[in-house]
Amino acid sequence: MPAFLLRVLDMTEPNPCLECGICCTHFRISFYWAEADDAPGGFVPAHMTEKLNHHMRCMKGSNQMPRRCSALEGVIGEAVSCSIYENRPTPCREFPVFFADGTPNPKCDELRALIGLPAIEPWILPTAA
Length: 129
Ligand code: SF4
Ligand code: SF4
Fold this sequence. Notes:
Layout: E1 30-32, E2 49-51, E3 56-59, E4 72-75, E5 79-82, H1 90-93, H2 106-114
Antiparallel strand pairs: 1-3, 2-3, 4-5
The chain binds iron/sulfur cluster (SF4) (2 copies).
The site of one iron/sulfur cluster (SF4) has 11 residues, from helix 2.
């Protein structure tokens, strides 16, 4: 049995993202323009976005160097949070720490290594007794 299967997800464990945040300074966070809240049904605060083209917007701060999404608060690699977490755009929701089978996202570990953070340990969901 691979070692990672011995570790069971403990929901009391801290969220690894809260000491990281590196992905919020690495990618241009671009998404369909209508996700912003100046469009019907949009939810991302429009004032925190900028126009890329007729179809796409991005988070301010993520389309420049050095890159850092304007919604990110705190110190990378120490303590961070997303000031619009409930209304973050799609790409932020689609970059997983874990895949469905419990294995960590290798790109996530790669980014964490850039700031000296350890790789994330895999988990499995507890099975019913
Ligand atoms: S790189 Fe991974 S651990 Fe770090 S903030 Fe992004 S998703 Fe979370
Ligand atoms: S919107 Fe939030 S989760 Fe997405 S890149 Fe910005 S700070 Fe990170």
